[in-house]
Amino acid sequence: MKFTEPAGPNAIDNQTIISRPVSRIDGRLKTSGGAKYGYEQLGPNTGAAYGYVVGAGIAKGKIRSLESSAARAAPGVLAVVTAENAGKLGKGKYNFAPLLAGPEVHHYHQAVALVVADTFEAARSAATLLRIEYAAEKGEFDLQAARARGDGQPAPIEQDPADTSVGDFDGAFAKASIKLDETYSTPDQSHAMMEPHASIAAWDGDQLTLWTSAQMVDWHRSDLAKTLGIEKEKIRLISPFIGGGFGGKLFLRADAVLAALGSRKARRPVKVALPRPLVFNNTTHRPATIQRIRIGAELDGKIVAIAHDSWSGNLDGGPPEGAVAATRLLYAGANRQTATRLAKIDLPEGHSMRAPGEAPGLMALEVAMDEMAEKLKLDPVEFRMMNDTQVDPEKPERKFSLRNLRACLQLGAERFGWSRRPMTPASLREGRLYIGYGMAAAFRNNIAMKSDARVRLGRDGRIVVETDMTDIGTGSYTIIAQTAAETMGVPLSSIDVRLGSSDYPVSCGSGGQFGAVNSTSGVFAACMKLREDIARKLGLPFDSKFEGGRVASGEWRIPVGEAAANGDLVAEDGVEYGDLDKRYQESTFGAHFCEVTVDADTAEMRVRRMLAVCAAGRILNPKTARSQVIGAMTMGVGAALMEELTVDKRAGCFINHDLAAYEVPVNADIPHQDVIFLDELDPIASPMKAKGVAELGLCGVAAAVANAVYNAVGVRVRDYPITLDKLLEKMPIRA
Amino acid sequence: MRAFKYSRAASLKDAAARLAETPNAKLIAGGTNLLDLMKLQIETPEALIDVNGLPLDQIEVTQEGGLRVGALVRNTDLAADVRVRRDYPVLSRAILAGASQQLRNRATTAGNLLQRTRCPYFYDTDQPCNKRKPGSGCSAIGGYSRGLAVIGASESCIATYPGDMAVALRVLDATVQISDADGETRDLALADFHRLPGDAPQVENDLEKGEIITSVTLPKPVASRQIYRKIRDRASYAFALVSVAAVIGKDFARFAIGGVAPKPWRSETAERELPQQGVARFSQALFADATPTRENRFKIVLAERVLQSTWTENRG
Amino acid sequence: MTSFPLPPVDRRTVLAGATAAATAYSTGLSAAGLASGADEQTVTLRVNGQTHALKLEERTTLLDALREHIGLTGTKKGCDHGQCGACTVIVNGRRINSCLTLALMHEGDAVTTIEGLAGRDGQHPMQAAFVKHDAFQCGYCTSGQICSSVAMLDEIKAGIPSHVTEDLNAEPKRTPEEVRERMSGNICRCGAYSNILDAINEVSGAV
Ligand SMILES: Cc1cc2nc3c(=O)[nH]c(=O)nc-3n(C[C@H](O)[C@H](O)[C@H](O)COP(=O)(O)OP(=O)(O)OC[C@H]3O[C@@H](n4cnc5c(N)ncnc54)[C@H](O)[C@@H]3O)c2cc1C
Ligand code: SF4
Ligand code: FES
Ligand code: FES
DSSP states of A94-117 as a string? Predict the structure, then answer.
């Protein structure tokens, strides 16, 4: 299906199954221990051996020598894989540091070896017997220093330019009545998904089966082939359940490559899970940013000038963090500019983490907006509404496909009781606690991506959907079943969904909040094709109705299964997009509100109420979509108050590399969370009239919390995370 | 985890004898700290002696009217004991503020006292650390030190003792009962149990090779208000940035501070002068010799503020 | 019921890759351990009512014994260091982190994992409530959350206080604050906490 014009009325509009709060169809498996993740696909008595990954002990330099004889001689050891004996390895399209180091070391904990043994314990202890000598080299690990030196290059944000400029920012800013010029920083962050990266590799001759934990089956497969120097067709890649990814499992990682190499050497299936303390430096992370924001407005609250410059760092070949992306689109203002600079920093690979660009960008922009509202003596909600725009402010001829930001702000303010907020900071106290309210706008782009699927109708009327789409907790299994059931007019219970295998047609995969909208659109397309095939087979017109398990036309009511009486009917199709996303700007919008308490003695901050209002087109399943949003809100609380990979600038590593030292929110940090979805359809965005929502839920949350903390105690912190030490000395001692 | 010989101790005597005669042997109680460190080969015992079967899991009333807490009493049971809740609430509070319920269900009195630092460099075997590898240097000095000690540290180590329970035990004037291979026992004030690093940060306490902790004794309860405040970045399942254990009676006040030093930090001298001098002075005296880093200086401010409010809210 | 098949596992691939080690894996549970040369001991665990006599390397954790030796993979390994709670199981009625204990330390102990929680009834009320309230997303922390929830309600019943219990000398209550604190040893990076609380409240009858 080529999607080149806005969708008209279609089968999805019935909403008898789609858009209903259906419980997950894999819920029973996941709550009973029955869902087997990649690493669990080979159990006892399958001959699988265990690989333990050893990470580099330096950040930059060379391996001078790697002595493995002691490890090889250790009991139970089957093989040791190093760059020296691995054969020639390529580099995947999406990797920019090799996944196996040697002799060159590009970052701390980059894999230098895999020790394979017949038990996990034997592999782990033998791994410590490797004697590795390094020739360390000086690296640059200090973004702030690089920025101070001006040592960075303009770097494009994917397809978009590094710098943009409209009108005369400098002139307009100079003349503006009210001005803000502040610098904000966001730290390096870790995805910290609960399942570490893990794979099992098994060779059969030159055929490789890899069970893994991948968000993008086809990317992993292609990059594994490229890395191993074999044909993609030789690899069968299976990622049935994924214990969280958040962008950290978008790309092929060392577990997969080393499992394949280890299995080849040991001539056994090999299981490799990254040890948790290795995950933080070995894999990717969200890079730190330093962002300068300048806003100029007239006394009436209209923005006349807005500029956003962002710095981030990365290894050679790595992308910048696109923190200015949202500023290009979120608010009106005739004179505007953005700039993205990338410094060469020798920390581990920086890459996408949930809502890359927008999440850290809004951490700065939405605090700046709060500061500006205060300068203007305007309600921050009002200030945002005044500067709303229905067109791309950089290219006013481009409209948004659908933009209901105002409605989100209004409804949110009303439901949250925003009018009850303390008007002056530090004015509301309950015993030992200061109370503060904060809000922020949410913004995240929609991404259109090709996605294919295959559907098969059996004689019994059951329909099997196959696509290499993954379910990383997003609910793909469920919404795909709902899409197929709705389109085919059969009950949900008649659908079998098979995902996460390279045996199936290539989908968009999971990431960038593009998964749900595109994968269901692809399934919808395949189902529409199957409907045609069924109608043809039954000799009914193409516009027959599919309802209640039957195909209806005129007097006819024929059970769908009859079309497959002589054998399964199989249809394969997908969605492909035209230039609608060029003609229109497709984005999702929202508003976050929260209430925090700050302890007057200790400055400990806790969030006690949260609300998100989201406008993201058709919501495919309000239950699973809500879970995505509350999960994102939780991550936003982490970003605001605790998450930070701390850089040791001498060693060139993130030193707090485990789950005790890298704190993410626990249950006690999170209050009841409310989510409201606006009832809307976006026919320009996709045939489903849906857009993504999973990342929107994160964008703006941290700023809302930051603004609430300011409202509570009157101390503005511009360096995340906002920890108590940054408030303490500025807060008066309680009488 | 390096391979080791595992055996169960049949009796205290048996455990002590084996501990003394097996080179590089260790006791294992809850295992929640030891196994964590063994997996990283920060601890590499060649033999583990499992003491879990020993009858050291009772809480008994002493002749003096105090409580003797067996070395193997689980943290959960100690915190939930009705006598402890009633007479030593600061101890219940401190234990409950630590770790998670799952960990407290395994963790024991002795094991908790002996838990090792959470200094991130101690946990990273690729980084120099004098405590882990004497003589290799201290990475935390000049490195990331936000969570580390502001006082009692040395030029060779600035790690903190991370536990909560011991802070309460310190303010309660508890003593530790220790038994050696010959069955000899000794009593040690908790105040003297943990050592400051000096130039040997790998030695963290006063236990000699072959010695076993058998119990911890609490003196007779005193009429008092007892408070434990633990300050941390997230609301639970996190170590203290600073914690304050307080026992405040009609004419006395005792405070021990956690998270600031290589041991629970307390000054009896300063306490005696508190009623006359006030909290600000008290805090100054307590931290008189502090050597904070830029990153952890806030701990002193934090401790002072908590002392201030705890005192104001609970005195008299 | 919607059936929910996994992508089929190709037996041939599994076994063919392993031919070189045929003897090692065909001798059963203890085979892997034998080859590793480390000392082994036997231990008898009662897991979900079933007795398992295992011959294990001494350093095998309870978690690895369950996952890699018995094949009960419902219990998850998130960190292997006591920092996440994914490995929570119930041993003799109490929840613990199975990654920080040795299997050998549990001779004769009754271990309940997610697979055994429901007994013969098919679905424990807590499992049903988790599905109903969508109290999970990726599902990786979920076994730990559910085991933890069940044991946690028992702990409240048994009068075990928590960090947020206001009056230490009174019976603890099932307030949201109590439940949140008591569930804080189970990290959910998908952030399902608000729904987890709703699921637990439904089972405990609290509002
Ligand atoms: C993620 C995480 C978070 C935590 N958070 C906190 C926290 O916030 N606050 C806190 O206080 N603690 C915390 N802890 C630490 C936890 O409380 C300790 O791990 C636990 O108390 C150790 O007790 P154990 O019985 O398991 O000790 P083990 O691990 O069995 O033993 C520890 C040491 O004590 C020795 N030992 C044990 N028994 C004896 C004996 N009778 N005589 C002599 N030596 C003995 C052992 O040989 C070993 O060297 C946390 C732990 C983890 C993993
Ligand atoms: S502070 Fe102590 S534990 Fe930390 S690195 Fe220095 S010596 Fe090691
Ligand atoms: S795996 Fe045991 S607590 Fe994380
Ligand atoms: S459901 Fe994914 S971590 Fe909890």
Answer: T-SS-SS--SEE-STT-EEEEEEE
Q: Check CB contact of A282 with chain B, cutoff 8 Å.
A: no
pLDDT tops 50 at residue A192: yes
**C158 at the A interface (CB within 8 A)?**
no
Hey, which CATH number is domain C40-117, 1.20.1530.10, 3.10.20.30, 3.20.20.70, 3.30.450.20?
3.10.20.30
CB nearest A601 (choices: B142, B143, B305):
B305
Give me the pLDDT at residue A549, please.
97
Cα(B121) to centroid of ligand 2, in Å?
6
Residue B165, min C-alpha distance to chain C (Å): 13
Closest C-alpha among B26, A177, A39 to residue C68: A39
B109 Cα: distance to centroid of ligand 1 (angstroms): 8
Q: How high is the pLDDT of residue C38?
A: 67
Q: Is the peptide bond before A687 cis (omega within 30 degrees of 0)?
A: no
Residues A476 and A519 in one domain: yes
How many residues in chain C?
Answer: 207
- Among residues A579, A590, A582, the alpha carbon closest in space to that of A616 is found at A590
> In chain A, how many domains are there?
2
Antiparallel, parallel or unpaired: β B242-248 and B253-258: antiparallel
Please write the tens of the pLDDT for every residue from C128-150.
Answer: 999 999 999 999 999 999 999 99
Q: Which chains have at least 3 CB atom pairs separated by less than 8 Å from chain B?
A: A, C
B146-164 residue pLDDT tens: 999 999 999 999 999 999 9
Given A518, A553, A576, the domain boundary residue is: A576
A554 in any annotated domain:
yes
Question: In a mutagenesis test of the A interface, which of B123, B125, B126, B300 is the best target, namely the one with the most A β-carbons within 10 Å?
Answer: B126
Q: Do A443 and A455 have their domain in common? A: no
Portion 17-36 of B in contact with C at CB < 8 A: 28, 30-32, 35-36
ipTM greater than 0.95: yes
Same domain, A720 and A592: yes
CATH of the domain at A507: 3.30.365.10
Interface size, chain B vs chain C, as Cβ–Cβ contacts under 8 Å: 109
What CATH number labels C125-204? 1.10.150.120
pLDDT, tens digit, 9 for 90 and up, residues C83-131: 999 999 999 999 999 999 999 999 999 999 999 999 877 899 999 999 9
Q: What angle do CA A419, A420, A421 make, to 5 degrees?
A: 95
Nearest-atom number in ligand 4 for the CA of A473 is: 2
In a domain, A564, yes or no: yes
Tell me, yes or no, whether A397 and A470 share the same domain. no
Sequence spans of domains, chain C: 40-117, 125-204
User: How close, in Å, is residue B183 to chain A by CA atoms?
Assistant: 36
CA-closest candidate to residue A251, choices A289, A197, A288 = A197
Together in a domain, A459 and A374:
no
Interface test with B, best of C57, C95, C163, C165 (most B CBs within 10 A): C163
Return averaged pLDDT per consecutive 10 residues of chain B, 316 residues in all: 96 94 96 98 98 98 98 98 98 98 98 98 98 98 98 98 98 97 95 98 96 98 98 98 97 96 98 94 97 98 96 88
Tokens of A275: 């040890």
A439 and A555 assigned to the same domain: no
pLDDT > 90 fraction of chain C, expressed in percent and rounded:
78
Which range of residues forms the domain containing residue A362? 357-447+583-728
Burial class (CB in 10 A: 0-12, 13-18, 19+), A1: middle
**Alpha carbon of A129: minimum distance to chain C alpha carbons (Å):** 15
Atom of ligand 1 at shortest distance to CA of A659?
Answer: 1
Are residue A430 and residue A471 in the same domain, yes or no? no
Q: Could you read off the pLDDT of A723-732 as tens digits, one per residue?
A: 999 999 899 7
User: Do C131 and A31 count as a contact with CB atoms less than 8 A apart?
Assistant: yes
Note whether A596 and A558 are same-domain residues: no
pLDDT of the residue at A732: 79
pLDDT band at residue A667 using 50, 70 and 90 as cut-offs: very high
| CB-CB neighbours of A286 under 10 Å | 29
Please tell me the distance from the alpha carbon of residue A141 to that of residue A344, in angstroms, as a whole number: 9
A-B interface: how many C-beta pairs under 8 angstroms? 104
Q: Tell me whether residue A695 is one of the annotated catalytic residues.
A: yes
Ligand 2 contact, B159 CB (< 6 A): yes
